[in-house]
Every structure is written in C-alpha cells, then in structure tokens.
Amino acid sequence: MFSGRRDAARRTIFAVIGDLLHLLRGVPLLPSGGPALHVRSAHNAATSVWPARATQWLLDLGDSWGAAFPSSHVAAAVVAALCALRYWRPLGLLLTPLDVGLVLSCVRAVHYAVDAVAV
Q1: Element (H or E) spanning 94, and its range?
Q2: Residue 98 vs residue 57, higher pLDDT
Q3: Distance of alpha carbon 79 from alpha carbon 14, whole angstroms
C-alpha cells in the first residue's frame, strides 16, 4: 500500500483474511495437538537464557490445544508471499526464503511437518 499499489494491497489483505477464515472453520473439525504436547522441552544452555524462558512462558500461558493443524501463521505467510510474487515481484522474492525459514522453524516445536505443508 505504501508503494502506491493500493489495489494489490487490498487484494492481498482480502486473500490473507479469507485464508485465515477458511482455516479457522477447520480447526474445530480436526483438533490436533502439536509435538510440544508429546515431546519434552530441551533443557540446556540455549533454553536457559531469558529470551528462551520468556518465549516458553508465553507459550505456557496462552498456547491453545487443538490448533496445531493446519498452521495458520504459515498459511498467512505463504499467501502473502504468493500475492507479493504476483503483484510486486521483488518483495515476493524477498519474502519467499523467509517463508521457507518459517515453515522449517515451526516444525517440531509447534507443528508436525504435515501441519505446515498441508496449507
């Protein structure tokens, strides 16, 4: 929108919101817990620093059981990147590797691989 592509921005926002609403319809039908419910968290030097402890505290405080499949944040990021590739290719090329990193990073901690790939 800030680049003057108002119509493309509206279409992208509509696509992301539509995708999220579509996914939210399926969560009550297919509730599933992620790996964090079945695999113990690591306890080492990397998990003892304050950012890791704060992240774990937030997850313990507000994580919702049953919302692992499908991965809504991966879906929203992928739709946004696809729209960017369509409407503003340089931005899409910038977002694509970030999306791949997002998909890879969410597997094991929050999602199973199928949760991220199924979107």
Answers
A1: helix 89-106
A2: 98
A3: 10
